[in-house]
Write a structure and sequence with these properties.
This protein has 220 residues and is mostly helical. 58% of the residues lie in helices and 9% in strands. The chain is built from 9 helices and 5 strands, in the order αααβααβαβααββα. The strands form 2 sheets. The chain has a 3-stranded mixed sheet, sandwiched between helices. A hairpin with a 2-residue loop joins strand 4 (190-191) and strand 5. It starts with a helix and ends with a helix.
């Protein structure tokens, strides 16, 4: 993806993702303190609020590195929790997810968002989704955890507003950055030998600079 297309993605997404307020350093610090106390569910809930989402989210924490059979058992458990909002992955999707978890490039995954009602409707506010988080993420800094959660929540945002780029993983990363988590991405996308997110280093810098430029214009 060339530089101009990254900038165009940022423009398209920014038009659709109008925030009421900028996320402040104190907002992020408050979530960091919750994470430091190992209150994962509360941490996810606060990040959800910062993303402007008010839907119920079921949170599960998974130990170890699953194989495909154990991952399918997790999917079954998630479907039991979600009821009618079910997730039916194909064998290929399960294999890809399992491979990415084993590589350490996936720290969480989302269930139940594909049929989510439109944002702002009464059905949207009562629709339930699930996020499963792999416990290895607790060995990494807060920013790496927050990046993983904001990425998954951004899938919900794009699906709920029926954005034409909702299936594009790069657009999902850009959405999280536009929603106010650009510095979380800057600090959390590379941690030790792990690299999270779908933007390469050059693409990330182009996107980061463009989002900061737009942010200064909006919030002057």
């Amino acid at each position: 993806m060339d530089d101009q297309l990254i900038i165009e993605y940022v423009r398209m997404l920014s038009v659709s993702l109008r925030r009421q307020k900028n996320i402040t350093a104190s907002d992020i610090e408050a979530v960091r303190k919750i994470y430091a106390m190992d209150k994962i569910s509360e941490c996810v809930a606060r990040i959800k609020q910062l993303c402007g989402l008010n839907i119920p989210i079921v949170i599960g924490c998974l130990r170890g590195c699953p194989d495909q059979d154990s991952l399918m058992r997790v999917v079954k458990k998630g479907n039991d929790l979600l009821g009618q909002h079910r997730f039916q992955p194909s064998p290929l999707e399960v294999k890809k997810l399992c491979d990415s978890v084993q590589r350490g490039t996936t720290a969480a995954f989302l269930m139940g968002h594909s049929n989510i009602p439109a944002f702002g409707t009464r059905d949207f506010e009562t629709y339930k989704v699930a996020i499963f988080i792999f416990d290895w993420i607790k060995n990494y800094p807060f920013e790496t955890f927050a990046l993983s959660i904001t990425h998954e929540l951004s899938h919900i945002v794009l699906r709920a507003i029926r954005h034409p780029l909702e299936a594009d993983e790069i657009a999902v990363d850009l959405t999280a950055m536009i929603l106010g988590f650009h510095d979380i991405y800057r600090l959390g996308r590379i941690s030790g030998n792990k690299k999270l997110g779908y933007l390469d280093d050059h693409q990330f810098q182009i996107a980061y600079d463009e989002i900061r430029r737009r942010e200064k214009i909006i919030y002057l």
